[in-house]
Amino acid sequence: MEQWADETNAANLVMMFRVPTSAFRLLSAFWRLNVAEELQYRANFIASVLGTVFNMATALLTLSLFFHHTTTLGGWDYWEIVVLLGVFNALTGVIEAVLRPGIGQLAGEVRSGELDLVLVKPVDAQGFVSFRQLDIWRLTDIVLGLGLAGYALFRLGHTPSLAQLMAFGLTIAAAAVVVYAIWVVLMSLAFWFVSVENIAVLFDAVYEGARYPVSAYPGALRFLFVYLIPIAWTTTIPASALTGRLRPEIGLAAAAVAGVAFGLARALWRTALRRYAGASG
Amino acid sequence: MSSIVTAERLSKTFQVKVRDPGLRGALRALFRPHYRDVLAVRDVTFGIDPGEIVAFLGPNGAGKTTTLKMLAGLLYPTGGRVEVAGFIPWTGGPAFKRRIALVLGNRQQLVWDLPPEETFLLNRAIYDVGDGDYRERLAELVALLELGDVLQKPVRQLSLGERMKCELVASLLHRPPLLFLDEPTLGLDVTAQDAIRRFLIEYRDRHGATVLLTSHYMQDVTALASRVLMINRGRLLYDGALEALVARIARTKRIELVLGGGDGNRVTAEALAAFGEVKSFHFPNAVLEVRREDAPTMSARLLAALPVADLSIEDPPIEEVIRLAFARGGEEDE
Hints:
Chain A is mainly alpha-helical and 281 residues long.
């Protein structure tokens, strides 16, 4: 019995570091399917854009209320925070377009047993449930979010250098990985506590904290957001890269944090699958 | 021929949280959960040869699906050894998964809002099926299942039977040598059930595939399976041909009579009772039950003594045999 378990770990370890070229073919097959599905519902596009614009307007209004009483928040001034808000919206687009319709459905599938049909397929199950679904209309959030960030940079009178743009590219990618890892961790709980659909709400609540720079929070919360639920890395750091606040070593740390978060999430997912099959106590 | 599926003393124990009814029970289960071991499969041993169609028989909760899931690598056995197509399922990885298909009667992989062909294309990418192979296999499956114009309609507009047929197509595009079917005809009408049975036999004959299925419908079993594995409470009660099971379990035969004779000398129930137990009697039809070994002599005596227009000897209905077999297996278990 134990021998089986060891073989599995070894095999999975190999799988983890080898991204087969067929993965890309598979992704394009998935997303082609989703585009075909979504194109049937063009009204979703209008609804999605209106929803995003409304959300951004509300957020900007809240922000200007804050700035009635102060000129900086955590050392950031108004337009810097609007840059951050744009980054926040772009990441929300990633969450809504990929994560919620994909891995967000895991709990229901564990409960109904539909996950079995995924597990018998010769593909990586985590990759399958994570990236099978693409809600294309919500991709507009990414465009609108980046647009807002660009406008705020213009108001700041700051044109990012090439190095700053590259740092932004690196840190926003790291941010997407961190957000993904948080979702994998939360959704893996479905294997222990079968009904965790509501856990997505928990994520939303905590993720609200990423609307403001982490320096705006008191010490305990800041510690929480940097080290435990690492949402500080998702918006504060990429926004800092755009406005020129980012120190290079923090950018590298962001990449490392993303790597560690991904590794931990992957390990938890594997433990969860073993539990699902009854391979562990 | 060497077996494609081997199970040796295969066992699976689940830990199930037990809780007392009511709010107090719920609270206690929340804070101090108690677990009970459920022996879903116990020491099951069997082997299956390539090309066989084998049915798992048993009531709900007998351990059929659990066994199937262990064979498909979805569940990890608590004890024993299992080898499928040369692999240990749980560790087989992609190479193993390409050699099996799993169809679950109550779950679907088809994308609800799109025509089934879109799901087929996705599976073509997943299983890396070449263009020529894909077209050839799809054409064959569509012809065998008589799917025709269904492929372009969104799945949500298909009937249950059409959907199950499409599930089969989606699951067989990579042409697996081994099929695991859990209740493939669940909820289907008689025509669709029959079509799926004929398809499975034809598919096996053409490609030598091995089929393992569970079903509640006895027709599935009688029409498809050359061999049954009867499971109850996790134990294998019987492994062999269905006819042999009937011969072993059913100690009786049924003599079905169509009586002749005019109104004047109508045969009465009392007269029939002298030959065996009268199961039903609606003149001119009658059904008698006699001991298995007595069936030939009783038939001869009936023919000699009564005006008989037609007579046939049948086994009791298969459902009844199975019920008897489980009842007896249960007794041994206590």
